[in-house]
Design brief:
The chain is mainly beta and 278 residues long. The protein has one domain: Apyrase (Neuraminidase, 6 Propeller), CATH 2.120.10. The protein has 3 helices and 20 strands. The strands form 5 sheets. It has a 5-stranded antiparallel β-sheet with strand order 13-14-15-16-17, with no helix packed on it. It is globular, with a radius of gyration of 17 Å. InterPro entries: DUF6929 (IPR053851). It holds the Pfam family DUF6929.
Length: 278
């Protein structure tokens, strides 16, 4: 897989979604190939321009607990919303051991994303995670000087969208969070994950593009920590030139174990799995 973009680590597995594939990959360890599970019918064209135009652009992967029933678990892949083609979501029901079931639902994100577009204009949802009863979406800034934004919605709004009832609920709370620049290139969110106690971690990339649609050269990537008050507490530059696109975290007494996946923006190069302790 070359364009890993969303990551969930749970049940002893790494679940990875790509922004230009029709499948989800599941890895049981870091040594053996993963297994593919189809999300959408058909295959995308090999031509890069046409592939980009037609892809669903799944940039985020969220684990939704206690859905569709109590003690059940569902993986939710969300399109970026950067075009109307990219307003698709997929919900995949897992069994009690984290294995895929036949429960798969395709749904539209149009109603969920409409209030975001009304507030921000163009959107590019690159990260998402559950924080208690909140769904937190990360809008990537950097294009044309726009700020990154943290979008706080209700879990019930995501459930309503999955169930086909639209994005019912209160207006989103939108918090700008500028991240600065690497070598003059603005940093933009690429994913996030919740921490115990109300804080969260994120990965970001300095991608030289003025567009929410077009890719650009990556000037560097970072891991950041946001505290429970919503303030940027730490920002660490990564010692790799590859773009981090998905993040998962495990907190323990010695610190944070962070797992990242990268997007090479090159179909001939495999994505990387990166591990680091903060």
């Amino acid at each position: 897989m070359s364009a890993a973009s969303g990551l969930v680590c749970a049940f002893g597995r790494a679940y990875v979604v790509c922004d230009d594939e029709q499948h989800l990959a599941v890895f049981h360890d870091a040594h053996r190939p993963g297994h593919l599970h189809r999300l959408l019918p058909g295959d995308l064209p090999a031509d890069a321009t046409e592939r980009k135009r037609r892809k669903a652009d799944f940039e985020t992967l969220v684990l939704l607990d206690d859905y569709p029933t109590r003690h059940a678990h569902t993986l939710v892949a969300l399109g970026s919303g950067s075009t109307a083609q990219r307003d698709t979501g997929i919900a995949l029901v897992l069994d009690a051991n984290g294995r895929m079931t036949r429960g798969l639902r395709r749904f539209t994100l149009a109603a969920l994303y409409q209030p975001l577009r009304s507030a921000l204009g163009e959107i590019n949802i690159e990260g998402a995670f559950m924080h208690g009863d909140e769904l937190v979406l990360l809008h990537r800034g950097g294009q044309g000087g726009a700020d990154n934004a943290v979008l706080h919605l209700q879990r019930s709004q995501l459930v309503a969208a999955i169930d086909g009832r639209g994005g019912i609920g209160p207006a989103p709370r939108i918090v700008p969070l500028p991240l600065g620049t690497f070598d003059g290139v603005p940093l933009g969110f690429t994913d996030g994950a919740a921490l115990p106690g109300g804080g969260w971690v994120f990965c970001a990339a300095a991608e030289a593009t003025a567009s929410s649609y077009a890719d650009g050269a990556c000037a560097g990537g970072a891991i950041g920590v946001v505290d429970a008050a919503g303030e940027l507490a730490a920002l660490h530059r990564l010692a790799t030139p590859h773009k981090p696109e998905g993040i998962a975290v495990r907190a323990h007494a010695r610190g944070l174990d962070v797992c990242l996946v990268t997007d090479a923006d090159d179909p001939a190069r495999a994505a990387e799995l990166l591990l680091v302790r903060l």
